[in-house]
Amino acid sequence: MSNPRPKKILLDVAGQKLKVMTDLEESYVQRIAAYLDRRIGAVQKSGNVGISQKTILLAALDLAEEVISLNHQLNELRFRNDSNKKSDSDPLTVSDKLGYE
């Protein structure tokens, strides 16, 4: 199976036309651009300002915080899952694990 060839996709984000080359599906890239556009719009409305570099950077910071927070949550879930796998192999019965007598 070969990698898809990069294709040019035209995006509209914050009133700016962007041409990107990607091997991702166009519909997926368009959804990402629309999400970014909504986030920039939310930052713009919260500050009652026009779209500027500062507005876009604030939206980018907001998105970066969201990514870091979600990665942290994912790592915690992985750690819990790994811990549960290890504890499932110990000889305790179900009633012992649940604290029943």
Q: Can you put this structure into words, describing what you see?
A:
The protein has 3 helices and 2 strands. The protein has 101 residues and is of the alpha+beta class. A two-stranded antiparallel sheet has the order 1-2. It is flat and about 50 Å long.
How would you concisely characterize the structure shown here?
The chain is α+β, with helices and mostly antiparallel strands. The chain has three helices and two strands. Helix 1 (26-47) packs across helix 2.
Beta strand %? 5-15%
Task: Specify the structural class.
Answer: alpha+beta
Q: Gyration radius, to the nearest Å?
A: 22 Å
Low-confidence stretches: 94-101
Total strands: 2
Number of helices: 3
- What is the rounded distance between the termini? 57 Å
What is the topology, as strand order, of the major beta sheet?
A: 1-2
Could you state the order of secondary-structure elements as H and E?
A: EEHHH
Most strands sheet: 2 strands, antiparallel
Shape: flat
Tell me roughly what share of residues is in helical segments. 55-70%
Indicate the mean pLDDT: 82
Topology:
Layout: E1 7-13, E2 16-22, H1 26-47, H2 53-88, H3 94-98
Antiparallel strand pairs: 1-2
Identify the notable features of this structure and list them briefly.
two-stranded antiparallel sheet, single chain, flat, alpha+beta, disordered C terminus, 101 residues
